[in-house]
TrEMBL record:
Belongs to the transferase hexapeptide repeat family. It comes from the Bacteria. Keywords: Acyltransferase, Repeat, Transferase. CDD domains: LbH_MAT_GAT. It comes from Bifidobacterium merycicum. This is Acetyltransferase. Residues 1-52 form the Maltose/galactoside acetyltransferase domain. The keyword Transcription does not apply. InterPro entries: Hexapep, LacA-like, Mac_dom, Trimer_LpxA-like_sf. SMART domains: Mac (SM01266). It holds the Pfam family Hexapep.
Length: 201
């Protein structure tokens, strides 16, 4: 399964891993609204690794959880779904809008083979300092670089290079992220901090 070759998902290891996931996801979904420490513990148990400061809003679902690895200060808004049949690796300071889907599985194009049960999966890799708008879907085998913005509703089926803004279905790069972008947004952030300081002072 993890090699990317075809397999049939009815073995005892898959069933055991999926039942483990179901138990943990149910506990996350039914936890009290303010049970932040409990959910943090449950997500640490669910994922292969969860970085420092990571936070996921429920509801959340996945295939196994144990094949998902996040960096530090990761944030996922509500209703995200990670089909982590193959590994999903997420860098530091990555922000997801609501209803982001990371889908590693693929199925044979031939109908007869598909109906007979075999399927496969390819890993998804996401760099650091990445922001996804809501309802972004990432398909199997995709790598997204560092410092990338993916527009809401995009369907990402090919790799996206670092330092770029990409949108659409299929998702494509529309421009690079430049020093001018950084200067503009640093200026806006400085304006906000000055305004906030004036209120506090």
């Amino acid at each position: 399964m993890l090699s990317g070759e075809l397999y049939i998902a009815d073995g005892p290891q898959q069933r055991e891993a999926n039942m483990r996931k179901r138990r943990l996801v149910q506990a996350i979904s039914t936890s009290a609204y303010d049970a932040f420490e409990e959910r943090d513990r449950l997500f640490h148990e669910l994922f292969g690794s969860l970085g420092k400061g990571a936070f996921l809003e429920p509801p959340f679902n996945c295939d196994y959880g144990c094949n998902t690895y996040t960096g530090d200060n990761f944030y996922a808004n509500m209703d995200c779904i990670f089909l982590d049949v193959a590994p999903i690796t997420i860098g530091d300071r990555v922000f997801f809008g609501p209803r982001v889907g990371l889908y590693t599985p693929y199925h044979p194009i031939d109908a007869a083979v598909r109906a007979s049960g075999p399927e496969g999966a390819r890993p998804i890799t996401i760099g650091s300092d990445v922001w996804f708008g809501g309802n972004v879907v990432v398909g199997p085998g995709v790598t997204i670089g560092n410092d990338v913005v993916i527009g809401a509703g995009s369907v990402v089926v090919k790799d996206i290079p670092s330092h770029s803004v990409a949108v659409g279905n299929p998702c494509h790069v529309i421009r690079e992220i430049t020093d001018a972008d950084r200067d503009y947004w640093e200026g806006k952030a400085a304006e906000y901090r000055a305004w906030k300081d004036s209120l506090d002072g």
